[in-house]
Amino acid sequence: MKALQYRTIGSRPELVEIEKPTPAASEILLRVTAAGACHSDEFIMGVSEEEYFFKPVPLTLGHEVAGVVEAIGAGVTDVEIGESVLVYGPWGCGRCYHCAKGDEMNCEKGMRAPGIFSDGGMAEYMIVDDARHLVPLGDLDPVTSVSLTDAGLTPYRAVKSALDKLTPGTTAVVIGAGGLGHVAIQLLKALTQSTVVALDLGDRQLEFATEVGADHVYRSEPGAADSVKGLTRGLGADVVFDFVGIQPTADLAAAMVATAGHVVVVGVASGAVQIGQRTVPLDVTGRAINWGSRAELIEVVELAKRGAIEIHVERYSLDEATEAYDKLHAGEIKGRAVVVP
Ligand code: NAD
Ligand code: ZN
Fold it and tell me: Gene3D superfamilies, from UniProt (predicted)?
């Protein structure tokens, strides 16, 4: 079968021919119907050899996966051959306290996420380790739904965790209106009565943010903090969601958050907001989000079924997958790049 693999640290991913896997006991073989390209894959491919801590290469990419059940291993029950499913990605052990709560991304044994710590779904077929990691898709289109598993789930957890701060009349800022951020804007519009402000680099991205519901958009530059203060009687944003996570965006978040506000960091990079008596307004809280729980994935699928959120998708074949990653790398994707094998 064809698979898109990260094979040499420091190089771009390659399309290769590998053996089609067979499911062992308790495993499920999916025929992949769609796989999303996430900026976290760019992070993985940007880590140096000394600091690389993911599945040793070759690594089949793809942690956002939808598929149809092709075959099941011994002992798998309650899964139908031919069933259309989404894959819950942050696989944990299933038995520790966090896993018992459905927060498998916080598993005490560490995550075994496909496409990151085991082979993923950017391929014609993929093995899922356990039936509990499948969420029925029903009639939803796998191509427009696949990214609910990360570009939907992660901002959903981020927004949900901040809802107590987002009372009617408050202001929320989304920094980075890309794959995750454009869903965050829609989630904020669907779940709150807050004013939603988006920051991104260029006109194209800011127009996109407006298309998906942002009330105000500004270029992501230091002056944006004053623009947000101008909108909020000088008080600042009640919640800032940073989907970039570099130091300039962390500094922006710190400069625009209001007293008793909240900063949620989602972007995987080295930026940091320092919580302290002299660094941010008083009573500010912060949180770094890790993906989402199994229950939250089911909740976000329900939001999509009800039309509350819609992922903007650019389609690519597996043969075009390297091109999709090149465009993601260059910041040229509008919404999410989805590979359809
Ligand atoms: P993306 O490339 O689709 O979107 C990034 C957006 O940020 C783009 O619109 C880009 O123009 C914009 N941007 C870049 N630099 C900016 C800046 N300085 N100021 C404002 N905007 C800027 O990426 P994505 O797939 O949406 O992922 C976003 C981030 O979230 C990545 O860092 C990714 O690794 C991370 N992520 C984290 C988790 C988690 O669990 N914490 C899960 C998935 C992704
Ligand atoms: Zn991701």
Answer: Medium-chain alcohol dehydrogenases, catalytic domain (3.90.180.10), NAD(P)-binding Rossmann-like Domain (3.40.50.720)
Q: Kind of pairing, strands 2-6 and 14-17?
A: antiparallel
Q: Please state, in angstroms and rounded to a whole number, the distance separating the CA atoms of residues 166 and 182.
A: 18
Please state, in angstroms and rounded to a whole number, the distance separating the CA atoms of residues 292 and 303: 15
CA of 151 to the centre of ligand 2 (A): 7
Q: Using only C-alpha atoms, what is the Rg of the chain?
A: 20
- Side-chain half-sphere CA neighbours of 227 within 13 A: 15
135, 225: one domain? no
If you count them, how many residues does the chain have? Answer: 341
The pLDDT-based confidence of 98 (bands split at 50, 70, 90) is very high
Question: What are 302-335's pLDDT values in tens digits?
Answer: 999 999 999 999 999 999 999 999 999 999 999 9
Nearest atom (ligand 1) to Cα of 42? 34
CATH number at residue 224: 3.40.50.720
* Predicted confidence (pLDDT) per residue in 282-292, tens digit: 999 999 999 99
Q: Which residues have beta carbons under 5 A from ligand 2 (an ion)?
A: 38, 40, 150
What is the count of structural domains for the chain? 2
Please tell me the distance from the alpha carbon of residue 308 to that of residue 296, in angstroms, as a whole number.
15
